Amino acid sequence: MPIANIENLDIYYEIIGQGDPLVMIRGVGSNLDHWYEQIPGLSKKYPLLVFDNRGIARSSDPEGSFSTRDMSADTMALMEAVGIKKAHVLGYSMGGMIAQELALAYPGKINGLILVATDCGISMRIKARPEYSSLFTEMIRLGTNEAKTAAAGCLFAKQTFESRPDIIQRYAEVSLRFPAAQKTLERQWEAITRHEACGRLQNINAPTLVITGSEDVLIPAENSRVLAKRIPNARVRSIDGGGHLFVVEQAQQFNEAVLGFLDGLSQQEGS
Questions:
Q1: Structural domain boundaries of the chain?
Q2: What percent of the chain has pLDDT over 70?
Q3: Domain 3-270 adopts which CATH fold?
Q4: Is the pLDDT reported for residue 151 higher than 80?
């Protein structure tokens, strides 16, 4: 089992392919197995480094609270441990906040940045409507299967929730393999509520693609437009009909957007 020991923290990771990969960072409560719609398609063209965040699944659980900056340091330490000098970075939801901190702290290490279904922090956060945010915070607070089932209503687009039980079922099955510990969910939620990068985004120098779902009620699409306005030369791609989990709902569209962006960067480097 591939484990990197980073300052008394064990991080479980997998590398699919060879060369400097696309580093992919997950969101709250999820682990690398949740990239099941991305790994087969993206790894055909780009090597991938995927991993379980601290306290999640096969990675060890540190004591005390932590921040998105701490998790960005975890990511960089993992990259160095496996010999990656420079890479593209993709962060989903909380992972997008970690990716922002990574790009700000280590600008020379990031070839391209993809921020997915995320926001820049508390000062400019466009919040979910109370009826949706309460479902998610109850899931964090209670951690029960019942609360997680109820939270599906704010994670998936309404159309998916009502007509695609197969998508929801598969995501639930993956989640149940390594259910996140209650204390880890609480610490991750604390990290999100304290994340603040809005006033520093102008310092990101990596080419950036921001991707949002048009029907995301948890992190509304306007957050992505805020990100793109504040990051130099960033652009936004909206996945039509996608909820917060459009990475599984609209996986083909999402994967094509990622590959198109990375292919474009490769062409620029080769010209």
A1: 3-270
A2: 97
A3: Rossmann fold (3.40.50)
A4: no
